[in-house]
Amino acid sequence: MSAVAAAGVVRRRGGWARLLWVGTRTYVLHLFRSPVEVLITLIMPLIFTLLAVYLFKAADRPAQLMQAAVGAGLMRMWTSVLMGSGAAVQDQRWMGVLEPLVASPRPLVTVFLPITLAHSIVGSASLLAAVGWGVLLFDVPLTFADPLAFLVGVPVTVLTLGMFGLLLASAFVLLPNANALANALSYPIWMLSGMLVAVDILPGWTRPLSAALPPTWGADALRAAVGGGDAWTPMAVALAVGLVHLGLGCLAMVYVEHRARVSATLALV
Amino acid sequence: MVGTTAVEHSRDTRPSGGGSLRFLVVGGILSYRALFNWTTPTMYLGTLFGSPVFQLLFFVHVGRALGIADDNFFIVGNAVLAASVAGIFGGTMAVANERRYGTLGSVLLSPRSRAVVFLSRGLPYVLNGILVSAVVLGTAAVFLGWRVPLGVAAGLLVVLVVGALSCTAFGLVLGSLGLRLRDVFLIANVASTLLLVVTGVNVPADRLPGWIRSLGEFLPMTHAVRAARDLTGGAGMSRVLPDLLLELAVAVSCTLLALAMLRLFEWEGRRRASLDYM
Fold first, then answer.
1. B118-132: per-residue pLDDT in tens?
2. Among residues B240, B245, B239, B238, which one has the least CA distance to residue B227?
3. How many CB pairs under 8 A join A and B?
């Protein structure tokens, strides 16, 4: 291989990381410049925290109010990723740029992973807003059993949710009305992931489903970071499961791209 | 026409009462049918039934995990509230989508009463809401072992009808905001989520702070949920009648408010020539 070709290979490899970084940063800035998105990021966590905190107060669990607030924030974070993954593909389709994106020489995963990561990052703002509202308005004590684990756990959860969102986005590429499907997926993931309450009392057949979801391990890690227990093992598992989902998402994107090129129906609504 | 003035002629051609009733029904059916211009029945049914059913399962699970109340508390509450999704978003779409798709001018040029036009849009969503609640209760019966005496079922149906009416009327209020605001569906989303808390569906009302309870008294579904729980708890219709009347009062109030706001925003939109301006 010549030096020029080798440099080209290095540039291309470096280019993927740069593309992911630029894409994610661009989408995050795009989302935070939307007044609607900012309002949703601030207001919806307030309602979710209100619900979660008063559920736990009704259950006479004052010592777990911080877990309730974090759980509410996680629920909003997942909704942000879910809606973002569904809407992102539809948005590209409606803007008429989905075909050029698919036709570009970059792998499709480098286009959609920044979108799902951006929505996950915005979702983390919802998590912080939920905790903030809880502390400011609902007498939630700002205490962490392991503050460092919480600080690390939040970006890990953000990352794993973004990876999971990529797998969803690849499925939504083929669905003309993906948003409608996304609307129904909030509650099942909240329940199976144990975002608000642990999954211990769910039927045994749901355990494999729960274990296969990155949010489950992220929620476990953050719950442990707040209430006590081992937060680092669930964090590591979350990353591992997230990488598996990323791999599956990449494969799904390759399949979707191939199928779209063969059937020539990518832009049809 | 010979022998009549233009004013008398226009009065002669205005729709009669019987025509308004026909419009209420046929217009509602046509507008509902038009909904499937942008969504497929599969996706619509998934959204209509999927979310409320999973909502029920989620809150029953949370209730069991936290030991707040028995399953019946969450089943009855969430089943009644399930009608709110169809009502709120349907009522919102019925008005706001006209502006969104550029057909508002044509609708407002019509000689039909505004009340008949927009109430006809909301009627199918009342029926939708009742159906969704029934499906949620059916899910509870199949998967959670929920049972209710047959005699209570009739009273429960009355509660569902009244609740669906008030939610749809509330949706029309939000939809009328769509004549002024661009992001009205954000408001509808917030309102729909807020009902999870303020109606006492998932948090017992006596465990909520006073200001939330007070707010809930003026919003749809609070009284309907209370009536439904009393009915399934063994109370007779005479005992739940006050709550039903209060829910009906919310429905009537929301309807009147929606019509007033529609009239106001229409007048303002005509004055500023901003009816179709998004």
1. 888 888 889 889 999
2. B240
3. 86
